[in-house]
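Record type: monomer structure entry
Structure origin: computed from sequence
Chain ID: A
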Amino acid sequence: MTTQPNLLFIMPDQLRADFLSCYGAAFIDTPHIDSIAQGGIRYERAYSISPICVPARASLLTGMNAIRNGVTDNGQWLRPDLAQCGIHTWPEILASAGYYTAAVGKMHFYPWDIKHGFQYRVACEDKRWIYVRDDYYHELAAHGERKYHGNEHEGYYENRGAILNKMPRALTWDGFVGREACRFLRTYGQEQPFAMMVGFPGPHCPYDPTSEYLTQFDPADMPAPIPCVPGDAPKLRQSNIDGNRGAWNGVDYTEFTEAHKRKIRAHYAGLVKQIDDEVGEILDTLAEQKLLDNTIIIFASDHGDYLGDHDLIGKGSFYEASIHVPLLVRVPERFAEQIPSAKTYGGLVQLGDVTATLLALAGCAPPTYMDAIPLPGLNLPGSRQRSQVIGMTSGGWMIDDGEWRLAKYSTGEQLLFHRATDPNEQHNLIADPAYSDQLRRLDGKLTQQLLQFTTDSHATVRVYSGNSLWSDPAYGKEGWQRPYPQTV
């Protein structure tokens, strides 16, 4: 590219791909999000390989998978001496390349107000963290309001977390984030190239749209949830029930009826519809400020939401509803010669590849320690087609080669699906001797990759790489000091 484009990365929290009209949803219209796809590339098989809020975000920040960066669940975070270890976040790298880096909305860092290389920060954290005194907290206080737990709303327990928001749209989590993103563009958009991440807290639970959005959706019109297959993974379902009983949520999903699921889906659709409108406001602001023609937009989500599929709620496993995420890249016309537009890509990609893509779009070579590679279809150096994606959390591992998916869980349960003929994951073939060759093949590839990731994750405690120290005279003398931490 002849000049540095502005970079805008929009990431709603817990948005599954099939609740967008550009991914085929007929019950909802999301024209503003769709317009991002119409101006660039829609990735049809994009997967979040660590489908939990914090691991997905840690992977995006570093470009390293969850085993390598050490964050495999929501109770972990990146080591504070990353820079000493030679690891830099993508906003740090882009800031050093002349970008003004900004984060607006939910980031889910520990501590929540750390910047990790973002020079500008407006925080509106997770909808469940009601005691965080972020910028949204102060905005509510200025209006005589506060954050509410879901259980402070009528019908919260009976409707399994589906409620009506107490706030008007302007004071909702997503309304605040959308407005603050527009404020940044109007205030700083013309100063220098910017790289901004916008993290919408919705449509994550509680499922709390305002009435203007909820009234647009009828539970009867929602797509039916995928059935649970008795005996497939009962321990996984019990773990899902137990986890949601915690005080952060407090909802018991032991009884989870069709009516519950459809109601939740209607509320979720209302949240998605609001996010689409907020995205529309951002796009309008870019056009108003004459920034649209020099801004590349990436839209994705950290993971999906079961919404009752397989009798589950939330995310965390490697079922399609949990890991299949939207991924769209809009490319301005001025870059049309370098980057083809208006098409789809049907091969495997993973969410973490957004990191390497942001760097490559800015003309920065992704560091060699990154697992992320630039997304295909954008004519970026280092891009290639993935033959498989490997999933990892503290609760399980997964391999998907585009046709087959093998998932192994800490519960001891294993699931093998032929995705090509069983897209709803209804036929677990793990114990079928007719597919033992496929099982051995996938299990071997998964083991090989996990061993390599585990070895790579210990880079900071390595004493030497390549040649050993046996031939180094300096090592043979008294007083030799081990270099620590070892850079990767």
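Annotation 1: The two ends are 30 Å apart (CA to CA).
Annotation 2: Residues 89 and 116 are 7 Å apart (CA to CA).
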